[in-house]
Specification:
Layout: H1 3-7, E1 10-12, E2 15-21, E3 29-35, H2 37-55, H3 65-73, H4 87-97, H5 105-115, H6 121-131, H7 135-141, H8 147-168, H9 174-180, H10 186-196, H11 204-214, H12 223-230, H13 244-252, E4 258-263, E5 267-272, E6 281-285, E7 289-291, H14 292-301, E8 310-314, E9 320-324, E10 344-345, E11 352-361, E12 364-373, E13 384-385
Parallel strand pairs: 10-13
Antiparallel strand pairs: 1-2, 2-3, 4-5, 6-12, 7-9, 8-9, 11-12
């Protein structure tokens, strides 16, 4: 957050709203922060009393002019008067010092998104918009956000928090300790794991490693097996590409649970080798992304068995685009046949749907078409979608 953003905060009723921009593009807001009167007073006290002392410290004079300029622009600065670039690392240190469970902002967002499932659709959308931090989310939601909708979303989060504390008991600690401390129940682990593995079913080994890393002591010896068996996808579709596992699979094309097989009448197709739950990412449609016009030319000039392996769509700006998968092997994965291009058509029996997503790859926005299961897929079922 920059000082200018603090000074230009807006007010709505008893709340103040700080808009933090993406400073790489400065084109839109990445996050809006709603502060109560008490929270605003804390920030103001820091800004007027603590921050000036940090900037005026003896070590500050040893910094060069550029560091000094940067420090003056940023709202939060270190004890040496420099901008704080790794707030997550500072948070971990604070949690360790206070001997409390290490909970990241990503985990908090997933917990609230899961709790928001009990709300109606407009409320769920408001919460999803408020919690989203990516540039893609900003493009979709933030430019048209009103102060009223932001305050409403923050109010919903406070309401969900109060409900959670109430269900945990008078102190609000029962559920938290059960989920993060000793004697963790299988149900608590399953709930938390859904937040961690929200769009791809994990393996038992991954769950074992994750549980061990949390430092939990589970009552059930086969808890990992139960988590895998009872797993179901969670989270908003708008946030699917925030999942690092999905990003990795899109990059490596190492999708699991699928097999290329031959059908007598229609040739190659895809069948499942494990179950997929409704809402789970099955695979993507992989290939070079070209303009819609280039795609039409490829379609016209391609013959034989490679005809038709192209996917037309519109990007987030409404421009016609195309994924060109007419070649049996792509240049980036010459050693494997990708699954998405081989999924056959069915209007009546389709069991997946395409979802256009955008992922930030080294500062460049990349279009991705994911296939999402529209119902539970058992082992041995052909994967189909309506062309």
């Amino acid at each position: 957050m920059k000082v200018k953003e603090w000074l230009e905060r807006k007010h709505a009723d008893d709340d103040s709203i700080v808009f933090v921009k993406d400073h790489k593009t400065a084109a839109h807001f990445v996050v809006s922060i709603v502060l109560s009167k008490k929270e605003e007073a804390w920030f103001e006290k820091y800004y007027t009393k603590v921050r000036p002392q940090l900037l005026a410290g003896e070590r500050k004079r040893k910094r060069d002019e550029q560091d000094e300029k940067d420090g003056d622009d940023f709202f939060f600065v270190s004890s040496r008067g420099k901008p704080i670039y790794n707030a997550a690392g500072d948070l971990i240190k604070l949690q360790q010092k206070c001997n409390v469970p290490q909970v990241s902002s990503q985990v908090v967002r997933r917990v609230f998104e899961t709790a928001a499932n009990r709300l109606d659709d407009p409320q769920k959308k408001a919460v999803s918009d408020y919690l989203g931090h990516s540039g893609t989310t900003a493009d979709r939601h933030y430019r048209m956000k009103s102060l009223e909708s932001i305050v409403m979303a923050a109010g919903l989060l406070k309401k969900l928090q109060r409900q959670k504390k109430s269900s945990a008991g008078p102190s609000g600690e029962g559920t938290r300790q059960e989920a993060l401390g000793e004697g963790t129940s299988p149900q608590s682990v399953e709930s938390s794991s859904h937040e961690q593995f929200n769009r791809r079913r994990p393996t038992k080994e991954r769950v074992d490693t994750w549980v061990k890393k949390q430092g939990w002591k589970c009552k059930a010896a086969n808890i990992s097996t139960e988590v895998v068996e009872n797993w179901a996808p969670s989270g908003s579709e708008d946030r699917i590409m925030d999942n690092k596992r999905i990003q990795s699979l899109v990059k490596t094309q190492d999708w699991k649970g699928l097999h290329i097989t031959q059908f007598e009448e229609k040739g190659d197709g895809i069948i499942t080798t494990r179950t997929f739950k409704k809402g789970q990412v099955v695979c993507d449609y992989h290939g070079p992304v070209v303009s819609g016009k280039e795609g039409e030319n490829v379609h016209k000039n391609t013959t034989g068995k490679e005809t038709g392996y192209i996917f037309f769509f519109r990007n987030s700006k409404g421009q016609p685009m195309c994924i060109d998968a007419h070649s049996d092997r792509c240049h980036c994965h010459p050693d494997k046949r990708t699954f998405g291009r081989l999924v056959n058509h069915s209007k009546k029996n389709s069991n997946i749907k395409p979802l256009h997503c955008v992922v930030d790859k080294h500062g460049e926005m990349k279009d991705v078409i994911l296939f999402i299961a529209t119902k539970d897929l058992p082992v041995g079922e052909e994967v189909l979608f309506d062309y």
